[in-house]
Amino acid sequence: MQPYELSLAAAAQEIRERRLSPVELVDSVLNRIEQVEPHVAAYVAVSADQARRTAREAEREAAQGSYRGPLHGIPVGLKDVIDVGGVSTTASSRTRAGHRAASDSAVAANLRAAGAILIGKTHTHEFAYGLTTPQTNNAWNRGRVAGGSSGGSAVAVASGAATFALGTDTGGSIRVPATLNGVVGLKPTYGLVPRHGVTSLSWSLDHVGPITRTVDDTALVLAAIAGHDPRDPASVAVPGVDYRPRPDPDLTGVRVGVPRNYYFEHVDAEVAAAVRRAIAQLEALGARLIEIDIPMTRYIQATQWGLMVPEATAYHERTLRTVPELYQADVRILLEAGELMGAGDYLRAQRARTLMRDEWARLLAEVDVIAAPAVPMAAVPSGQETVTWPDGTVESVSDAYVRLSSPANITGVPALSVPVGQDAAGMPIGMQLLGRPFAERTLLLVGHAYERTQSARSLAPLT
Amino acid sequence: MSSAELTPPEAARWAARAGLSLPDDRHSVVAATASHIHSVVAVLRELDFGDTPPAGAFRAEQEKRDAAV
Q1: Which end of chain B has fewer surrounding CB within 10 Å, N or C?
Q2: Which range is the signal sequence, renumbered to this chain (chain A) (predicted)?
Q3: Is A173 an active-site residue?
C-alpha cells in the first residue's frame, strides 16, 4: 500500500510510530496528484514546494519527539473559498482574479496549529453556488459530475490526491459530492465550526466541514476545527469533545428514525434499496428502528430558496454591478434574479425556519438519529440537466441533489453522509445520518458502527 | 402568463429600483428566473406565523423556553 492510500487515522499512526515520515507522505500524495489531476482536475492550485517545506518541519518536530496530534504531517486540500494567508482564494471565479487572502481563515489556522499540511486549494462550483462543479470530473467516472459545490475536495479525497479535505455546505455542498464520489462528508451543527475567513454563499445556511475516507477520520478532523470563534457571529461556545467513536460497533439502545415521507420519495430504486440495506444493518447492530414523519416538507425548498437567494445576492452586490460578465452564466442569473426578491419573502423564510427548527426538535426528541438517503440518485452524466422520475415528474439535477440535504441546512442539525454501496453502473451511493444539534458524536458512532461491518473501501479506481 | 409573473420590462424596472441596471439582453432571462423563484417561495404565504419571530440570528439548539432563571 502506498502512503497516499492510507486513511488519515492509519497515516497518523504510522507517523506517530515513526514508520512513515511526513515528507514521504506528502511526496506520495503530490505524486498521486500528478497522476490523477489530468483526469479529474480537482485542484485550482497545488502548493508543492510549500507543502514539502512544511513536511520537512513536521518531520523535524517528530524526530524531536514533538507530536502535535493526529493531523501532524497529514496533507489536506482546502476548498477554494477558504482563506489561507498570502494565497489567492479564487472561489473558482474569474471575478477573484488577483485576490490574495490577508490571513488564514479560522479553520486553516486550526488545521495548521494541529500540524496538517496544506497541499492545495480545490475546485468549487463558482462561489459555491451550484451542485456540480463543472471544472472537475467524478473520481469514479470522468464522464459523470463531481457533485458540488465542494467537488474538488471530494474528488481529491476519493482519488488519493489528498488524505482529507475541507468543504462548505449551504444546501448539501459537502454531502452531495462526498456521496457522489464514495467518501464521507460531515455538515456539522450550525455554529460548531467557525466560518471566519470563508467566502460566504449564504450566511444563515453556510457550514464548514470535513470530507474524509472514513468516519473515524471525520472525527479526527472535527476535533481540530470545531471551537468558538467570536469573529463568526454564529459561532457557539461548546465544551471540547472527543468525537472519536469507540471501536465496538454496538448500537444497542440507539433509536434510528426511518422517514415514511420525503426522504424516500423520488429516489432512485437502487439508492433506496442500498440505504434500506444499510438501515437493516444498523438494526442488526442493535439499533431500534422507528418510523417517523418529516414535518413541513412542503415548505423546505421555499425556505431554502427564500434564505439563500437574497443572501447570496447581497454578498455579491458590488461585483454584480461592476463585473457581471465575469460570472458564469448559471451563477449570474441567480444573483441577478435575487435582486428582485422582497424583504417579505426573506422574512417569511426566516420565520418558517423557526417553525421548522422547532418541529425538528420535537422529532429528534423521539429518535437519536434519522437515517435516509443522502442524495436521490448517484452521479449523473456531465451535462445532464434534468431527471425524470417514474411518475413522470421532471426535476432539475440541482434541485434533486439539494432536496434531501437542505433540511439540515435550514434547521442547523448535523448531517453525516456515509457510502453504502454502488449502483449497477458502479457509481457510489450514500446514506445520510441526521441528529440533534451538537450531537455529532452520536452520528459518528452510528456511521462508524456501520462502516465497521463493511470491508475497507478502496480509492476510486482511477489511474 | 399568471399575474405573478414578471414581464421583462418589469424585471428591468425592479432591478433598477434595487440599484442594478440590467442590459437589454438580460431582461427576459431575469424575468423568467425571478418568476420561477417567486413561484417557489410564494408557498410560504400559506403559513400562519402568529407570533413566530424570524430566525435572523438563530441557534441550531432550541432555547429552553421554560428554564428557570
Answers
A1: C
A2: none
A3: yes
Residues A212, A111 contacting (CB under 8 angstroms) = no
Distance from C-alpha of A363 to C-alpha of A292, rounded to nearest angstrom:
8
Q: Are A288 and A256 in contact (CB under 8 A)?
A: yes
Beta strands in A307-407, from DSSP E residues, in sequence order: 369-373, 386-388, 394-396
Instruction: Measure A334 CA to nearest chain B CA, in Å.
Output: 7
Q: What is the arithmetic mean of pLDDT over A222-249?
A: 91
Domain presence at residue B42: yes
What are A316-368's pLDDT values in tens digits?
999 999 999 999 999 999 999 999 999 999 999 999 999 999 999 999 999 99
Q: What is the pLDDT of residues A406-458, one digit of tens each?
A: 999 999 999 999 999 999 999 999 999 999 999 999 999 999 999 999 998 88
Q: What is the pLDDT of residue B5?
A: 83
Partners of B45 on chain A (C-beta within 8 Å) are 348
Q: Taking a C-beta distance cutoff of 8 angstroms, is the pair A81, A130 a contact?
A: no
User: Cβ–Cβ of B20/A320 closer than 8 Å?
Assistant: yes
Give the chain A residue nearest B32 (alpha carbons): A337
Give residue B33's domain range. Answer: 8-46
Q: Does A355 touch chain B (CB under 8 A)?
A: yes
Across chain A, mean pLDDT equals 97
Is the ipTM of this structure higher than 0.85? yes
| Distances A266 to A152, A369, A391, A392, A395 between C-alpha atoms, Å | 27, 22, 9, 10, 9
Q: Are B38 and A333 in contact (CB under 8 A)?
A: no
Q: Please report whether residue B41 resides in a domain.
A: yes
Known active-site residue A121: no
Nearest CB to A333: which of B33, B42, B43? Answer: B33
Distance between CA A17 and CA A11 in Å, rounded? Answer: 10
Taking an 8 Å cut-off on Cβ atoms, the answer to whether B49 and A437 are in contact is: no
3-state SS, residue B23 = coil
Q: Which chain B residues have a beta carbon less than 8 Å from that of A412? A: 58-60
Q: What is the DSSP string of A224-281?
A: HH-S--TTSTT---------PPPS----TT-EEEEESSSTTTT--HHHHHHHHHHHHH
CA atoms within 13 A on the CB side of A418: 31
Q: A357 in helix, strand or coil?
A: helix
Give the model's confidence band at A462: pLDDT under 50 very low, under 70 low, under 90 confident, else very high. Answer: confident
